[in-house]
Specification:
- The structure is a single chain.
- The chain is mainly α.
- The chain folds into two domains: 12-192, no CATH class; 198-260, no CATH class.
- It is built from 13 helices and three strands; from the N terminus they run H-H-E-H-H-H-E-E-H-H-H-H-H-H-H-H.
- The chain has a three-stranded antiparallel β-sheet with strand order 1-2-3.
- Strand 2 and strand 3 (113-114) form a beta hairpin.
- Helix 1 (12-22) packs parallel to helix 7, helix 6 (126-135) packs across helix 7 (137-150) and helix 9 packs across helix 10.
- The longest helix is centred in the middle third of the chain and has 14 residues, at 137-150.
- It is globular and about 60 Å long.
- The relative contact order is 0.14.
């Protein structure tokens, strides 16, 4: 399975709707996004950001592959290795053994929602859940919002009770990875402002996709802020299009970027 999809960037209407439904503010929601996936729902290949969980795959397959495939089926969590394509190599190895268990044992997108939650979150099938994760960051964020609502985390998010939120969202071992502290730190940053700019984020995501063919386009992250590396990447793209290499995101540059990355 390829898993590359439309990979559309997060849209303002989806963000506003989700914030309204959860009753939180932008700073708290962006804190969760930043901690879960460093703020980026797709990798350069246009595949969703994922993490394959070998201990879940082991449980879902009754441990029958633990001896033959301990790297992808193991009673112990961990063994993640590098992010990016390595996670898809692990997932594809598991898919060859048990497709549904493999997809369900993987966390997906901006909110790193596990595939195993597809049914309680109201998706008609596991395959439809995965399809949504391939489509857009907006649908990825919607899955995260559904998980928050279904598991009673909305009040914790609204109250900024990061310990309770992290325990319910990340599990009982949340303190080992300092999820609560990381959420609090990001929240303080986002409260001071400004919040990520979705137009800049979309441009950064487009540049990330295009960087597969031209590494000079790589903005080195998707955070919604116009930093030095994003400006340098924009200037390189502008040169490639015969535009003035200002390194700023004017309307012409934005339109050309979105079209070049096939995100329109």
């Amino acid at each position: 399975m390829n898993f590359a999809g439309k990979a559309l960037p997060l849209q303002q209407n989806a963000l506003d709707e989700i914030i309204g439904n959860l009753g939180c503010d932008g700073a708290s929601l962006w804190s969760v996004i930043a901690v879960e996936t460093s703020g980026q729902g797709f990798w350069a290949t246009k595949k969703p950001a994922i993490l394959f969980e070998r201990h879940l795959f082991s449980r879902m397959t009754n441990n029958i592959y633990d001896n033959s495939h301990p790297d992808i089926s193991n009673k112990e969590a961990g063994g993640y290795g590098a992010s990016g394509e390595h996670q898809y190599a692990r997932l594809n190895a598991a898919l060859a053994l048990d497709q549904n268990a493999a997809l369900a044992s993987t966390s997906w997108g901006l909110g790193q929602v596990l595939g195993e939650h597809w049914k309680p979150l109201g998706y008609p099938s596991l395959q439809q859940f995965v399809s949504d994760m391939q489509d857009s960051e907006s649908k990825q964020l919607l899955a995260m919002a559904k998980f928050i609502q279904h598991n009673g985390l909305a009040n914790d998010l609204k109250a900024r009770d990061w310990s309770n939120f992290a325990r319910k969202y990340n599990g009982s071992n949340y303190a080992i990875n300092h999820y609560d502290a990381k959420l609090a730190q990001h929240d303080e940053l986002f409260k001071k402002g400004p919040l990520p700019d979705l137009r800049i984020r979309a441009a950064q995501l487009a540049l990330t996709y295009l960087s597969l063919d031209n590494g000079k386009f790589d903005p080195h992250g998707v955070d919604g802020w116009m930093g030095r590396m994003t400006s340098a990447a924009l200037a390189e793209f502008q040169r490639s299009k015969g535009l003035t290499a200002s390194g700023t995101l004017d309307n012409t540059t934005y339109t050309d970027l979105i079209a070049a990355a096939n995100l329109s």
